[in-house]
Please model this.
Amino acid sequence: MAIYTYEHLEEPCAFGLTFDFPQPMSAAPLTECPKCEGPVRRIIARPNINRPKGDAELRDKGFTKLVRRDDGVYENVTAREGESRYVVRGRPETLPDVKKTVSD
Model:
């Protein structure tokens, strides 16, 4: 079932100025609002197209992607340099060695 976007031609109702309405593709466009029975017209809306995201783009958006490497061992393919890349089920993630520098 397709979802079409409609716009009120007069005063909007509780649906708002524009609203989405699911309809079969074979159905004729609505001419009146199903809520207030005011005149409406179907408008062309921008389609939502998703594309696969790369590992770097996922990391930049704050996600972590784990890929299974062995039984219970997962690799963090979105880890930044210096971060732990492997996660073992049942063990806490190991942290990289951090050296403290003391200024005199």
